[in-house]
Design brief:
The complex is a heterodimer. By secondary structure, chain A is α/β, with parallel strands linked by helices. Chain A has two domains: 2-166, Rossmann fold (3-Layer(aba) Sandwich), CATH 3.40.50; 191-308, Rossmann fold. Helices cover 24% and strands 28% of the residues of chain A. Chain A contains nine helices and 16 strands. Chain A has helices spanning 16-26, 42-47, 69-79, 92-104, 211-220, 228-232, 263-266, 286-289, 298-308; strands at 2-6, 32-38, 55-60, 83-89, 110-113, 115-118, 121-126, 131-137, 142-146, 162-166, 177-183, 196-200, 223-226, 253-257, 274-279, 292-295. In chain A, helix 5 links the parallel strand 12 (196-200) and strand 13. The model of chain A has no long low-confidence stretch (mean pLDDT 94). Chain B is of the alpha/beta class. Chain B is 28% helix and 32% strand. Chain B is built from seven helices and 15 strands. In chain B, a hairpin with a 6-residue loop joins strand 3 and strand 4. In chain B, helix 2 (69-78) crosses helix 5 and helix 3 crosses helix 4. Classes of the chains: A alpha/beta, B alpha/beta. Chains A and B meet through helix 3, helix 4, strand 5, strand 7 and strand 8 of A and strand 3, helix 3, helix 4, strand 9 and strand 10 of B.
Chain lengths: 309, 250
């Protein structure tokens, strides 16, 4: 049997999350095919260059512009017979469409897989990362969502897969219609794929002070993140949120500024390679996971740090 | 319009849950239980829609043992009109919960299902999408804004890059994210009134759902601890360490 990976994209590029998902799929030791639903062949062509892929099933239709879950699930169901594993990343796109498809095939999905022990046994965080569960499937076909920070990325350039054009069959399922997107525009790298992330917490005190992070982020080509406390207080937009209810990140360098280190925040960043904590409270739990801790007033530390980088 | 709100009983979100001594499951003995926070947001949204005059009835439903009545009473105290308790001794997985909810949906014929995007226990984030799939209905997940229109609902969704707005014809399934609203607290008079509101009891057999153990829990452990590092005394020392020791900046 074969493994099918759902490709995520923005109609211009394949998402980095897909590369990690392909890497996770390779650990299952089966042939890997990709499924692309997009408004043009561009994404399928790019996906065909991902290392370790046999075929790319390319569904092209104008309505696939926005990866509506109802559409994506229908495409997967159409080809499901040939596969016993179905993988997507646990991004908001994967989380939205994967369970819809799993239910159509009567499969209990396994969410947020961080380790593949064998082809029936997987590890996943539960209780906001406070515990790690090992689960064993009794199903012949399985649907896994992949916590991408737990896996390396497959090469996006060394592959040469065959692209197969698929025809779209419409079913009777009622669907949501796309109205609009309001995406955060930034010159800096995307949070989940950035090499360096600098995040602010409640200690930032207000939205204006978040600009203190921008200067450092620009110098380091880093993404800016935030704790849930900072987002809930209105200091930063929700898509900045790092943690169990936000994004999981694992950059080379994670700088936590004015973040106390609640379990739900740690769940989203503790796999980072090097962690720096800047906090005026030397008892803050964030120091327990930090490689380098600096106890100090962030309003003095941040300008000094920016000037010395 | 009728709104159906499926809810889940979980640990209080302030409690840090740990593995049991034999590492076979989590230890929930003596842990305070509550309505899942995302479900509280769904209840609140349903009540607000009713208060605005756009719905006549809010029905809550949960699936589980006798103790789940506590959470149904909480929902009734917050303003739900009536409750349905689908009784089962063993916890069900999301696919089977969705199958139960299909049956409840068919009995109740709501125009809108509002439910939490995920339980803070298993962190599955599946049931709403599964319910929508099985019913062949549109879904709008991770809602931060829900606007009812004639015969449809417009939902603003929290997605990785920002926000997305979808429109779905009713009936539709909407799952709630954290920023949708801030749930109220139940007042004492409403807690007293809730005791007289009806809870219908159903059992799994009568609904024709037979749960299967598709995915077994083998072990539960604490996550690997990260080793605590060092404290640096100054910004200069920090920059030096990052450049020359960790080699993560240039």
């Amino acid at each position: 049997m074969k493994t099918l990976v759902l490709v995520e994209h923005d109609n211009a590029e394949v998402a980095a999350a897909t590369l990690s998902t392909v890497k996770a799929a390779s650990l299952l030791g089966q042939d890997i095919d990709l499924l692309v639903a997009a408004s043009s062949q561009v994404i399928a062509q790019k996906a065909s260059q991902i290392d370790g892929v046999s075929k790319v099933l390319s569904f092209v239709d104008g309505r696939f512009d926005n990866e509506i879950a109802e559409d994506v699930a229908e495409c997967v169901v159409q080809v499901a017979n040939d596969y016993n594993f179905f993988l997507a990343s646990s991004s908001t796109t994967g989380k939205n469409s994967l369970p819809r498809f799993a239910a159509l095939l009567d499969i209990q999905q396994i969410s947020e897989v961080i380790e593949i022990i064998d082809n029936a046994t997987f590890k996943k965080p539960i209780y906001a990362g406070a515990c790690i569960a090992t689960v064993k499937t009794n199903q012949e076909k399985n649907v896994l969502s992949i916590r991408t920070t737990a896996f390396d990325k497959a090469s996006a350039e060394s592959g040469n897969a065959q692209v197969i054009e698929m025809s779209v069959t419409d079913t009777s399922s009622k669907k949501s219609a796309f109205i609009k997107n309001e995406l955060t525009v930034s010159d800096r790298p995307e949070l989940t794929s950035a090499d360096i992330v600098i995040s602010g917490g409640r200690g930032m005190q207000d939205a204006d002070n978040f600009k203190l992070l921008d200067g450092i982020a620009n110098k380091l080509n880093a993404a800016v993140g935030a704790s849930r406390a900072a987002v809930d207080s209105g200091f930063a937009p929700n898509d900045y949120q790092v943690g169990q209810t936000g994004k999981s990140v694992a950059p080379n360098l994670y700088i936590a500024v004015g973040i106390s280190g609640a379990i739900q925040h740690l769940a989203g960043m503790k796999d980072s390679k090097t962690i720096v904590a800047i906090n005026k409270d030397e008892e803050a739990p964030i120091f327990k996971v930090a490689d380098y801790g600096l106890v100090g007033d962030l309003f003095e530390v941040l300008p000094e740090l920016e000037s010395k980088l | 319009m009728k709104i159906l709100v499926p809810i889940k009983r979980v640990n209080d979100y302030n409690v840090k849950v740990r593995p049991n001594q034999s590492n076979t499951d989590v230890d929930l003995s003596n842990v305070k239980m509550a309505v899942n926070p995302f479900c509280e947001i769904a209840i609140e949204e349903a009540i607000r829609i009713k208060e605005s005059g756009n719905a006549e009835e809010v029905v809550v439903v949960t699936v589980g043992d006798e103790k789940h009545q506590e959470q149904l009473r909480t929902a009734l105290a917050l303003g739900a009109d009536r409750a349905i308790h689908v009784k089962t001794e063993n916890p069900l997985q999301p696919l089977d919960i969705a199958k139960v909810l299909v049956k409840v949906f068919e009995k109740e014929s709501p125009e809108l299902v509002l439910m939490g995007k995920q339980g803070i226990d298993g962190d599955h984030n599946q049931t709403g999408q599964m319910l929508a799939a099985m019913l062949g209905l549109p879904q709008a997940t991770f809602a931060s804004k829900v606007e009812l229109q004639a015969g449809s609902v417009e939902v603003t969704r929290e997605i990785d890059g920002g926000l997305e707005t979808l429109k779905a014809e009713l009936p539709a399934i909407v799952t709630t994210d954290l920023r949708l609203n801030e749930p109220r607290y139940a007042s004492l008079p409403n807690i007293m009134k809730a005791k007289r509101k009806p809870i219908d009891e159903l059992d799994l057999d009568a609904l024709g759902v037979s749960p299967k153990n598709r995915v077994e829990l083998v072990a539960v452990e604490s996550p690997a601890e990260r080793q605590e590092g060092i404290k640096v005394e100054s910004v200069d020392e920090l920059v030096d360490k990052l450049k020359n020791e960790a080699k993560v900046i240039e």
